[in-house]
Amino acid sequence: MNALQATDPEIHALICQEEERQSDKIRLIASENYVSNSVMQATGSVLTNKYSEGYPGKRYYEGQQIIDQVESVAIARVKAVFAAEHVNVQPYSGSPANIATYLAFLQPGDTILGMALPHGGHLTHGAPVSISGRYFRAESYSVDPESKRLDYDQVRKRALECRPRLLVAGHSAHPRILDFAKFRQIADEVGAIFMVDMAHFSGLVAGGAHPSPVPYADVVTTTTHKSLRGPRGAMILCRDQYAAAIDKAVFPGLQGGPHDHTTAAIAVAMKEAASDAFKDYAHQVVKNARTLAKTLLDKGFNLVTGGTDNHLLLVDLSATGLSSKKVAKALDRAGIVLNYNTIPFDTRKPTDPGGIRMGACAVTSRGFKEKDMVFVGDIIAAVIARLDDEAFLAKTAAHVKEYCRQFPAPGLGHLLA
Ligand SMILES: *Cc1c(COP(=O)(O)O)cnc(C)c1O
Question: Is 279 a catalytic residue?
Fold first, then answer.
């Protein structure tokens, strides 16, 4: 019996059940992934016992002989993977990384301009319910009503109107590659700091399957746990001239002690991200997303922008009259896990919006290839055609579970053993 099972059978059993769920279902949530055993081991290590406020060589507690090396290795690896001048690996997650960046460059009340939340932007890009929309004057740009892609003349027009101190590019639900050079020009024209939040697609950037924003942006933030396939965490990459401001904003500006176990796991993930295997992974993610998109298009579904360039797709269900929440819940009962999502110019309420979002990062980590994405697309279409047929949903869930047996998921099985 392992220690957790002996001391806390209740939580042990729940974790085991979650392992089974992650093993038996097809996980299409675009922000999720499966980390490797190595990342999992670093995350669950004794480094969680340490306090190390400050930065390597400049700490406020003693006993940093090893931790300083861990953080320095992590930073060096991130710099190498993304060709970044300066890196801070301490943000606790993506949202605090963005808030720290605002703290580095802005005063309360300054203007930020980002992609509107219903158009694919993130809460922390100025949504009214977020601190980013309450402490700053948040303005937004939208996608083009026809193409649902960014119209850079419109972004420029908005920038000239509201004169942001900081311009944000990046998204959580946009299936297309952004033109970072155009954003840079617009930022220069209005004298704004140019920030890219690559939380969703940083793994594709690391693997060479998506253009890098690093040469264009003043500052780039990213989570480490989405396509990048690292632990729950985040980092900020910036030009050397902003290094001191960013570091001061993260600590002591926003946070206390860094999560050293996460820092170690980021280092491990960055070693993996530098490998040829990860390049193959990133390219396979894009191929898999495209194959799923094509499968759904062939079955008559509407996709926002008509397809995808990255790891995610957004299905516009508005013409079907179906509730996206009901669709997402039925799919979950059938073994396909995804989320309902707003679509640009949505006319439905955010708690039951017009679309569903899906991504290929997690299934690709367990070895799904194009033919498997056709299987996934076929199942999604079949379930959407029979939403109220509980027997069919249960039969499909069993079929999905059986199918998933061919693809053992990385990082699972520690506690089941
Ligand atoms: C996921 C995400 C974040 C926030 O990350 P958390 O770790 O959930 O705080 C920030 N920005 C974008 C674009 C994201 O997709």
Answer: no
pTM for the model stands at 0.97
* Sign of the torsion formed by the C-alpha atoms of 277, 75, 228 and 200: negative
* 157 has catalytic annotation: no
The active-site residue out of 50, 59, 182, 232 is 232
- Of the listed 223, 262, 263, 396, which one is catalytic? 223
pLDDT truncated to tens, each residue of the chain (417 aa)?
689 999 999 999 999 999 999 999 999 999 999 999 999 999 999 999 999 999 999 999 999 999 999 999 999 999 999 999 999 999 999 999 999 999 999 999 999 999 999 999 999 999 999 999 999 999 999 999 999 999 999 999 999 999 999 999 999 999 999 999 999 999 999 999 999 999 999 999 999 999 999 999 999 999 999 999 999 999 999 999 999 999 999 999 999 999 999 999 999 999 999 999 999 999 999 999 999 999 999 999 999 999 999 999 999 999 999 999 999 999 999 999 999 999 999 999 989 999 999 999 999 999 999 999 999 999 999 999 999 999 999 999 999 999 999 999 988 876 555
Q: Are 335 and 26 in contact (CB under 8 A)?
A: yes
CA of 233 to the centre of ligand 1 (A): 10
Q: Is the peptide bond before 252 cis (omega within 30 degrees of 0)?
A: yes
Structure tokens at 242: 């902003």
Q: At 226, list the tokens.
A: 């989405």
Residue 203 CA, ligand 1 centroid: distance in Å = 14
Domains and CATH numbers, the chain: 40-273 (3.40.640.10), 277-404 (3.90.1150.10)
3-state secondary structure (DSSP) of residue 77: helix
Please indicate whether residue 59 is annotated as part of the active site: no
CB 273 within 8 A of CB 203: yes
Residue 216 known to be catalytic? no
Q: Which residues line ligand 1 (CB under 6 A)?
A: 31, 93-95, 98, 122, 124, 170-172, 197, 199-200, 223
Structure tokens at 379: 């199942």
